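Milestone 3.1: sequence recovery, worked example.
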C-alpha cells in the first residue's frame, strides 16, 4: 500500500532478499489487491488470494518473474495451507459454507473436495439459484451484480435490494451468517446486489472512484443496476422492493431516502451515517472519514462533508424505515441511528428502532442474529408482502 491513511489502497506483493536487503515488487503490474500470502514448500511459488469480479480465488505468483496464475474459479477462498503438491484451501460461496478442497499447484482440474462438514445440517435445505448480470453504469463502466431466486418460486417475488458496506468492499460469491442472501431467498425474496463504483475486485481506479463521491456514481449504479435486474429477471417484482444496507450501505439507504424517495416500499438501515458533520467528530476511524472526504477535517473543508450528507435531505424523506444500531459501535456510533430515527418520527414516517446494547458495528451473538433476521424480514413483509 503506497498511500498512508487509505485502507483500501492496492496491496502489492513485495519480496525482500534477506542477504542483500533488496526489495522488489512482484505484482505491481497486476491490478488486483493481494490478500493472504503463503509460500509453497519448495519455494517455487507464492500462493495469494485476491478479489476478482465477485470471486475471491487462489492464485500462484512466480517469485522469479512475478507471473500470476489463477488456480481456482468460483467461490471465496478463505484459508490456504500449502502442500507438496499444491494447497489445501477452504472455499465457500453464496450457497455453501466452507469446506476443504485440494488444489493442484498447476491449477489443472477442478479443486477436489475433501470434506462435507455441514452435510447433515444442510440436508433437506433447498438453496436458491444465483445469477450474475452486468450493465453499463456510471462513467460508462461495466458494473456487475447478482440476483438470487428463491428455490421453487414460480411467480413474481418482492425484491430485497442489498447495498454492501465498506464502501470499498464487494457483494461477492461468499457465505456469511450476517446478511445471508439465502436467508432472504428462503423468506420469499428475490435478492439483488450490485458492485457499484468503489467496490473491490475490479482494479484500483474503480475502487478509488467512490472517494469524495459517496452519493454520486454509486447511486447512479444502483439505479441502473436495479433497472437492469428487474428487466433481465422477470420473476423480480420491482414494484415491491425494499432497500437495505449496513455501514456504508446504511449511509446509502439514508441517502436514498432523500435522493430516490419514491422507489422503495421500505428501507432497512443498519449502522449507517445519518449526519456527516457529527460523524466527522464521533467516529473512532478519523483517518478513514477524512480520506473519504478529500483528506481534510470537517472544520478545514466543511463543504466536502456536506455535499453528500443525508441529513440535508430529510425534508424529502418519506419511505418507512427500520433503524438498527449497536451501543458498542464506535465506527459509526449509535447516536447516528438515534438521530435518523428521530428524523423519521418527526417527519411522521412509519419507523421502528432496534438497539442492541451488547453489539458493535456487527451483530455477532447468535441470539441477536436471530432477532435481527426476525425484525428485518418482518419489516419487509409488512411493506411488501402484506400490501398486495
Amino acid at each position: 500500500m503506497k498511500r498512508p491513511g487509505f485502507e483500501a489502497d492496492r496491496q502489492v506483493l513485495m519480496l525482500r532478499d534477506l542477504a542483500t536487503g533488496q526489495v522488489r515488487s512482484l505484482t505491481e503490474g497486476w491490478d488486483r489487491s493481494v490478500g493472504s500470502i503463503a509460500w509453497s514448500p519448495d519455494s517455487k511459488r507464492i500462493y495469494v488470494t485476491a478479489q476478482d469480479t465477485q470471486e475471491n480465488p487462489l492464485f500462484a505468483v512466480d517469485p522469479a518473474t512475478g507471473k500470476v496464475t489463477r488456480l481456482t474459479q468460483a467461490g471465496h477462498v478463505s484459508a490456504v495451507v500449502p502442500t507438496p503438491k499444491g494447497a489445501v484451501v477452504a472455499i465457500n460461496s453464496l450457497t455453501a459454507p466452507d469446506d476443504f478442497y485440494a488444489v493442484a499447484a498447476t491449477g489443472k482440474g477442478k479443486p477436489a473436495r475433501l470434506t462435507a462438514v455441514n452435510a447433515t445440517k444442510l440436508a433437506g435445505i433447498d438453496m436458491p439459484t444465483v445469477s450474475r448480470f452486468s450493465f453499463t453504469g456510471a462513467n460508462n463502466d461495466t458494473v456487475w451484480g447478482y440476483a438470487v431466486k428463491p428455490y421453487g418460486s414460480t411467480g413474481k417475488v418482492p425484491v430485497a435490494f442489498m447495498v454492501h458496506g465498506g464502501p470499498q468492499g464487494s457483494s461477492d460469491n461468499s457465505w456469511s451468517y450476517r446478511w445471508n442472501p439465502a436467508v432472504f431467498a428462503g423468506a420469499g425474496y428475490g435478492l439483488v446486489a450490485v458492485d457499484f463504483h468503489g467496490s473491490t475486485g475490479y482494479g484500483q481506479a474503480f475502487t478509488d472512484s467512490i472517494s469524495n463521491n459517496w452519493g454520486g456514481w454509486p447511486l447512479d449504479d444502483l439505479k441502473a443496476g436495479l433497472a437492469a435486474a428487474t428487466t433481465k429477471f422477470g420473476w423480480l417484482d420491482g414494484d415491491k422492493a425494499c432497500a437495505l444496507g449496513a455501514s456504508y450501505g446504511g449511509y446509502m439507504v439514508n441517502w436514498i431516502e432523500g435522493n430516490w424517495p419514491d422507489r422503495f416500499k421500505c428501507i432497512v438501515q443498519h449502522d449507517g451515517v445519518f449526519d456527516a458533520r457529527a460523524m466527522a467528530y464521533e467516529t473512532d476511524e478519523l483517518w478513514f472519514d477524512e480520506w473519504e472526504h478529500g483528506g481534510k477535517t470537517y472544520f478545514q473543508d466543511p463543504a466536502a462533508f456536506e455535499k453528500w450528507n443525508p441529513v440535508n435531505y430529510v425534508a424529502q424523506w418519506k419511505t418507512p424505515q427500520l433503524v438498527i444500531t449497536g451501543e458498542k459501535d464506535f465506527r459509526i456510533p449509535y447516536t447516528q441511528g438515534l438521530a435518523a430515527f428521530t428524523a423519521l418520527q418527526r417527519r411522521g414516517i412509519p419507523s421502528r428502532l432496534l438497539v442492541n446494547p451488547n453489539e458493535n458495528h456487527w451483530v455477532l451473538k447468535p441470539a441477536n442474529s436471530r432477532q435481527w433476521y426476525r425484525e428485518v424480514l418482518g419489516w419487509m413483509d409488512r411493506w411488501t408482502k402484506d400490501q398486495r
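The chain has two domains: 14-117, 129-385. The domain at 129-385 is CATH 3.40.50.1820 (Rossmann fold).
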